[in-house]
Write a structure and sequence with these properties.
alpha/beta; 7 strands
Length: about 290
């Protein structure tokens, strides 16, 4: 006997789904007569009720949604592995005025640091060129999606025709997505914790350029997970050794006994994009 198909029951992926689509219900609800009952917040469909979804009791649901949305979309795009670029939003491109500088000392420091904008750009280009060997499904550049070093990473990938990911986050300043992020791979987050998970879930390497509190947070998150073996060991590469050693005394931690001396070996210091790429090549050749 021939099957009588329900309108809208056949999904775009060709899978039969007899249950009514939630989009159809949402559309139908919007067209209902405006009465005191239908206009009451209690009558809204739960999944379409933004006020309800924003309640503090729904935080676990929102955490899951943030994790799941990016996970599903990256999987659908076929992204299998990434190379992470962390670094400061305030580091300008060469020749640009450092917008965040408040005095001459800061202006000079940030202007000098623009060399690392260029190295981030070159390094991302190297990643993008290598990624082409895997149809841009492996070694895909991922940044925080904002300005500074993040922009340099997305820009370098874009300049060699490679897609790149931007994991933006809602902040009161500075964090509009840069224009070099691949639009289909541009994501926005509310929760730092979920965003950091997505940085590391597919990472083949983590590179860290000079930055502030956010960059330090991201670096130590990755370093702690590797040190405690909560994730596989991958290359952790710090650009600008002088900068990092001036703000973190890794040897003092080992001398004091709060880390093991061999934990310092988890870190690779480099100055150039070519040096960083060689660290990655050597690691995976072994």
């Amino acid at each position: 006997m021939a099957r009588v198909e329900n309108e809208g029951a056949e999904r775009k992926d060709g899978v039969w789904e007899p249950l009514k689509d939630n989009k159809a219900d949402k559309h139908a609800a919007a067209g209902q007569p405006k009465t005191p009952q239908t206009m009451s917040p209690s009558y809204r469909l739960a999944f379409a009720d933004e006020d309800f979804l924003s309640r503090k009791e729904l935080r676990p649901v929102r955490l899951q949604l943030e994790l799941t949305k990016a996970e599903m979309m990256l999987a659908e795009m076929g992204i299998k592995s990434t190379v992470v670029l962390f670094g400061g939003a305030r580091i300008p491109a060469p020749g640009q005025a450092p917008w965040a500088a408040r005095n001459e000392t800061q202006r000079n420091s940030l202007q000098a640091a623009s060399v690392y904008y260029e190295e981030a750009r070159k390094f991302a280009a190297l990643c993008g060129e290598y990624s082409a060997k895997f149809d841009h499904k492996e070694y895909v550049v991922v940044t925080g999606g904002g300005p500074g070093v993040m922009e340099a990473g997305n820009r370098g990938a874009s300049e060699v025709g490679a897609p790149s990911i931007g994991l933006n986050i809602m902040l009161p300043h500075e964090q509009a997505p840069n224009l070099y992020v691949t639009p289909e791979l541009s994501f926005n987050f509310h929760y730092f914790a979920i965003r950091k998970m997505h940085f590391l879930m597919r990472a083949k390497a983590v590179t860290v350029f000079p930055g502030g509190f956010g960059t330090l947070d991201e670096m130590f998150e990755a370093l702690t997970l590797i040190q405690t073996k909560r994730m596989e060991r991958i290359p952790l590469i710090l650009f600008a050794e002088k900068f990092w050693r001036s703000i973190i005394n890794f040897e003092a931690l080992a001398d004091f006994g709060t880390i093991a001396p061999e934990d310092i070996e988890l870190i690779n210091f480099v100055e150039t994009a070519d040096e960083a790429w060689k660290v990655i090549q050597d690691f995976y050749e072994k």
